[in-house]
Amino acid sequence: MAMVVFCSPTSTSRATGTARFLPTLLVYAFLVLLLLIGSATSDFDHLTCSDEEDNDGLTDTPGAPVCSSQDRKALLQFKSAISSDPNHVLLDWHASNANCCSWTGVTCDGATGRVVRLKLYNQNLKGRLSPGISDLSSLQVLILDDNDFFGTIPSSLGTLESLRRLCLSNLPSLKGPIPESFGRLKNLELLDLSSDALSGPLPSSFGGLSNLQALYLYGNNISGTIPASFGLLSRLYLAGLSSNQIEGRVPDSFTFGLTSLVFLDLSNNKITGLPKDLRSLGSLEYIRMSNNPLMSGDSVEGIATAPQISEIHLSSCMIKGPFPAWVSRLPQPDTEYISEWVTPSLDLSNNAISGEIPPALGNLTNLQRLSLENNKLRGSIPTSFVQLQSLQLFNVSYNNLSGKIPQASPFTTFDTSAYIPGNRGLCGHPLGPCKS
Questions:
Q1: Can you list the positions of beta strands (E) in 202-275?
Q2: Which domain holds residue 194?
Q3: From the CB of residue 380, how many other CB atoms can be counted at a distance below 10 Å?
Q4: What is the DSSP letter of 257?
Q5: CATH number reported for the structural domain that contains residue 19 in this entry
Q6: Percentage helix, strand, coil, to 5, in the chain?
Q7: Which positions fall inside the Leucine-rich repeat-containing N-terminal plant-type domain (predicted)?
């Protein structure tokens, strides 16, 4: 089963031994592409705002009846709010062309002639979003990504109760709050408001989005805490909320209803912690909390209770003190049941973790990436690490480790950048020989 995820880190190769993270937007785009490549077998193809072949279940019907006068009026009102159309994409949108079902970007229902899809992505359109869109009462898909719309999102969009996909991403001049009225969109499966300039709190009304499966809000200025009502989103499997100003602890309500959640990205915020018990999140495989500088090691110990957790990112979280004890209690899910886009990983880099590396980490034999660089670790690399035969990326540079590097695969395949700078007391291949 293919899924699309956000913000998965990538390394250059095993030879470098260095974890390099691509910018969020590039990784998002790359993973959407992966989903599209596997679209023939995916159950979630309709949950992307893609510029490829539509996967929303709607098709153009030759000879469809003339669109309703209500819809034609609403579309002309939308056009009247456009101040610039350099690609002339709306050239055929005019009153004398009565059949708006034939207009560029418009798809109608073959039986009723009602507009069910409006798709005008990446057309360099500039203007305000017309409230008249809400008069397209049968609209199921609205995709206006990658344009130059400005102003605020009309609250009247919350009346489009048939809407399943709402895509208003990459609109950097779109400001203001997310309308509370969006909580009335009971049929919404995908909401993408990423990479805009939205501000204000997360609407508590989102708890009413009972069919929501994918939520993309990354790259805005959203502030405040996560409403407890988010725990009602029982069908949500993907939550991409990175790069905002969200603060406080993740509410305990997350553990009550988010039983479908697979992917959670809260990186680059002001989150202070997670619920202590995540056992009810039996589907959770990927969590990214990097760059939340107000957290501590104990505040995220609930991660170890998530039975299927496989990819963990806690880089640059100001975790201090001894190696978090919960890391030694991490589960080891069967790789047969891990999603194909998940890479079993543990990233605790760029913190202030001190003391020795626990030997119990060597029991995570499915681990493919282990990033511990730029901490205050001392002691030796545990001999138990020779059990990590699946390891493809390993980095402990910028620490105070000493002793002999395990002289077995895969550690003999990593180059010096996996171990230095730092760690002046380490020896053995690929560094210099140990003194007898």
A1: 214-216, 221-224, 238-240, 245-249, 263-265, 270-273
A2: 59-199
A3: 17
A4: H
A5: 3.80.10.10
A6: 20, 20, 55
A7: 69-109
Residues 148 and 296 in one domain: no
Strand partners, 233: none
Q: How far apart are CA 274 and CA 251, in angstroms?
A: 7
CA-nearest of 21, 44, 27, 8 to 349 is 21
Report residue 246: phi and psi, to 5°.
-70, 140
Claim to verify: residue 36 and residue 65 sit in the same structural domain: no
Q: Nearest 5 degrees, angle CA 14-CA 16-CA 19? A: 85
Q: Which of 434, 425, 423, 412 is nearest to 372 (CA)?
A: 423
Distance, CA of 204 to CA of 183 (rounded, Å): 8
Per-residue pLDDT in tens (0 to 9) along the chain, 436 residues: 333 333 333 333 333 333 333 444 544 544 444 444 343 334 444 567 764 445 555 555 555 567 899 999 999 999 999 999 999 999 999 988 889 999 999 999 988 999 999 999 999 999 999 999 999 999 999 999 999 999 999 999 999 999 999 999 999 999 999 999 999 999 999 999 999 999 999 999 999 999 999 999 999 999 999 999 999 999 999 999 999 999 999 999 998 899 999 999 999 999 999 999 999 999 999 999 999 999 888 899 999 999 999 999 999 999 999 999 999 999 988 777 788 889 999 999 999 999 999 999 999 999 999 999 999 999 999 999 999 999 999 999 999 999 999 999 999 899 999 999 999 999 999 999 998 7
- Does residue 252 contact residue 280 with C-beta atoms inside 8 Å? no
**245 SS3 class:** strand
Q: Are residues 230 and 96 in the same domain?
A: no
Q: CA 17, 20, 24 angle in degrees (round to 5)?
A: 155
Measured CA to CA, the distance from residue 140 to residue 163 in angstroms comes to 4
Task: With respect to residue 69, please indicate whether it lies within any of the assigned structural domains.
Answer: yes
Instruction: Give the Cβ contact number of residue 97 at 10 Å.
Output: 12
Amino acid 432 reads G
**pTM of the predicted model, to two decimals?**
0.88
Alpha-helix residue ranges (DSSP H) falling in 54-180: 69-80
HSE-CB for 108 with a 13 A CA cutoff? 23
The single residue listed with the structure tokens 């101040």 is 83
Q: Are residues 257 and 364 in the same domain?
A: yes
Of 354, 353, 249, nearest in space to 292 by CA: 249
